Amino acid sequence: MNAPVVVGYDQSEQSDLALREAVRQAESRGSAVRIVHGYVWATPVVGAAPLAPVLWQVEEMEDACRNAAKQLIEQVAAEVRTAHPGLTVETVVKSGSAPAIIAEAAEDAALVVVGSRGRGGFTGLLLGSTSQRVLALARCPVLVVRDRLRGDRGRILVGLDIEDARSCDTLLEFAYEEAARHPGTSLSPVHVWDEPWAVSYAVRIGEQEAVAAEHERADRFQERTEPWRAKYPGVDTHPFLLEGSAAKDLVELSDTADLVVVGASSRPDGRRGRRLGPVAQAVLHHAHCPVAVVPTW
């Protein structure tokens, strides 16, 4: 069986949406879905009470909390198995930090799916702390789901830095594979040239040189995207080469998309996890659709 799809679940509306997307992803990949739940057990303060009875009560309460969490996730898993009889459903329930538990459960995963906010998220917060920590810890691509789920036939955007060939290949491979698994889905590779830089560049080197630089950029964009377009001829491709702000343009384009794919680099200090640049951060916080963050190192 293919690598599983992991989903963090905490009974919130966002995690319900994440579970639906994870099931969809698992079915399209021919893999299992692994439902992960991390719960926090806060030990009561003992104070001056006799110690033995209190410790017994604490253990009893901890067992009750653990059993309630397991019962919750097993019930959710049973509902998924009933609705999707051909799907393998796994569960992980542990006490501790939810992001760390999700990341650990995803060591062998193809994808992690999380809601943008969990049960403890503030209403105005666009990306909750659990989602941010999972993004930092997980080694595989992470799909952050918002209020709007993807349709069966839709459009995928993938933001590219054409100066980084390895990053382009990694992101395009993920995006094209995703589009190919869902027939009828189109793909739009997007590269945005920073407009203020373009203006100053033209002033400094002259209009002729600026036009030549623009043509060079277009050639580089085609060089990065054409091999993948040829590899997936069945995917309808609509590239965008724009001048402006990458973050702003990707967020605006996301209003008519079902998924935005962005990259994340490794930490410069060699620590585990990923580093999100300003464009990826802006897209995560402001996109109008789900966002997939793909490690490019």
Could you describe the 3D structure shown?
This protein is an alpha/beta fold and 297 residues long. Helix content is 46%, strand content 22%. Strands 1, 2, 3, 4, 5, 6, 7, 8, 9, 10 and 11 form an 11-stranded mixed β-sheet that branches. β2 (31-39), α2 (51-83) and β3 form a beta-alpha-beta unit. α3 packs parallel to α4, α5 packs across α7 (207-231) and α8 runs parallel beside α9.
> What CATH architecture of the largest domain would you give?
3-Layer(aba) Sandwich
Number of helices: 9
Question: Percent of residues in helical segments?
Answer: 40-55%
Radius of gyration: 22 Å
CATH fold field value of the largest domain: Rossmann fold
Low-pLDDT stretches: 120-125
Q: What is the number of independent domains? A: 2
Describe the largest sheet: 11 strands, mixed
Question: How do the SSEs run, as a string of H and E?
Answer: EHEHEHEHEEHEHHEHEEHE
Number of strands: 11
Q: For the terminal residues, how far apart are their CA atoms?
A: 26 Å
Which percent band covers the strand fraction?
15-25%
Question: What structural class is derived from the secondary structure elements?
Answer: alpha/beta
Mean pLDDT: 87
Give the class-level CATH name of the largest domain: Alpha Beta
- Overall geometry comes to elongated
